[in-house]
Amino acid sequence: MTSRYQDPATIARVLDANTWAVVGLTDNPARTAYRIAQVLLDRGKHVIAVNPRGESVLGCPGVTSLDEIDEPIDVVDIFRRSEQAGTHVDEAIAAGAGAVWLQLGVIDEAAAGRAAAAGLSVVMDTCPAIEWSRHR
Which residue ranges does the record assign to the CoA-binding domain (predicted)? Predict the structure, then answer.
């Protein structure tokens, strides 16, 4: 692995986390976020859908933003374009999340640096489904 945000020990620790807020999760089975949310659910994770309508997805509660979540967030999993990711990373920091996971192809070094400086675990430019096959 080449990125400092793809550290195997960090990835393994984040994969063990329970509560995942999935930013960009909508009720569209053709979208990657939907498929990965299903993988998270299959792994026994508690998933919260974060989308503009606040709609529930796959039977998981939905909210429009991270600040609406009234429970501890272990991981904020971001399925947004790279240029939009920083806003959600900053929301994760403000919400007291334990980690941010920027999905495969979502790269924002500055936002990742802010999250790391705030004490969050950071994984970037990879996918939990890929990493479970590597780490389990």
Answer: 14-106
